[in-house]
């Protein structure tokens, strides 16, 4: 007997409806989760935790988002953007290149005082001031009385040394803070380890830092993580394609560096692109040597300023296994906050709901506000003043100047 089409479709329709109902239920059912903290019980760390309840308080998240992959993708696709209006400064660098520094363009009624603290933000690989998580951080900083400067880096190994010096010269009366995400966190942490007590940065925050690049590279080859690898490589391709002709000319020159432009333009993985361009640009003999030598896990023992590290246990790109727990515990300047969920650049348990600002934004603003408050207390002021006294007078780095200025609206 022939079954009517509508009757045959009914089970499929019921299954679809049931799946949709389950998804809705999973978004309505909320799990309460609590971060864990690791670090030495120093007077500074104890005071920070006392002033920053967000770092240890439970947060609530829809059950559906308690999977690292789901939260990562959900945040990337559905997080709302505040559409920040930026003033862009194009900064000429000593090697002849150019980087872009973005600050929020504000009406007179919202202008911050000239000596307001300044927060240098370092986005992740292929990220920049237009990304939703960066825009939200800029807004949260301003609401906390902190001026954010987004460092749009040219590549995964750009050192912030000249940018930090330039920003300090521009705001000589301000406390300098720094925060980075993902590869930006890796770059920032390496900078802090290299500069040690020479840095003018007073305190910093690293979020979803991959730390151990060889381990993180191997992690990209596992299951669904290949999708992230491919997607990030596509983003690198798009950025690189605008400059492909320059690398072709360099590779063709008898005195040029041996770039592999035809490999780079078709790279299907970050590793392929790094082997073709990045490791050559920064003088590494192989991509494995580049990853091993550029891992910020090596820098943690040398960090000499307060560093808050925020990681998610279920981060599919910056895996928990890459976190240098022992080195963090051994350095009294470091404090690790580990959230049970968050994915990569997700943290959808913020006060603005699942599509609002990341949970980390309020925590980071709270942290830097606490740092400023503690530095005014006699217990910590003397050490801060001694550190400031060791700094040379603010000055523009050699070979650095402003080559242009524009204003643009972030989408």
TrEMBL record:
<dbReference type="InterPro" id="IPR012020">
    <property type="entry name" value="ABHD4"/>
</dbReference>
<dbReference type="Pfam" id="PF00561">
    <property type="entry name" value="Abhydrolase_1"/>
</dbReference>
<feature type="active site" description="Charge relay system">
    <location>
        <position position="344"/>
    </location>
</feature>
<protein>
    <recommendedName>
        <fullName>AB hydrolase-1 domain-containing protein</fullName>
    </recommendedName>
</protein>
<dbReference type="GO" id="GO:0034338">
    <property type="term" value="F:short-chain carboxylesterase activity"/>
</dbReference>
<dbReference type="InterPro" id="IPR050960">
    <property type="entry name" value="AB_hydrolase_4_sf"/>
</dbReference>
<dbReference type="InterPro" id="IPR029058">
    <property type="entry name" value="AB_hydrolase_fold"/>
</dbReference>
<feature type="active site" description="Charge relay system">
    <location>
        <position position="182"/>
    </location>
</feature>
<feature type="compositionally biased region" description="Polar residues">
    <location>
        <begin position="402"/>
        <end position="411"/>
    </location>
</feature>
<feature type="region of interest" description="Disordered">
    <location>
        <begin position="385"/>
        <end position="411"/>
    </location>
</feature>
<dbReference type="InterPro" id="IPR000073">
    <property type="entry name" value="AB_hydrolase_1"/>
</dbReference>
<feature type="active site" description="Charge relay system">
    <location>
        <position position="315"/>
    </location>
</feature>
<dbReference type="GO" id="GO:0047372">
    <property type="term" value="F:monoacylglycerol lipase activity"/>
</dbReference>
<feature type="domain" description="AB hydrolase-1">
    <location>
        <begin position="117"/>
        <end position="345"/>
    </location>
</feature>
<comment type="similarity">
    <text>Belongs to the AB hydrolase superfamily. AB hydrolase 4 family.</text>
</comment>
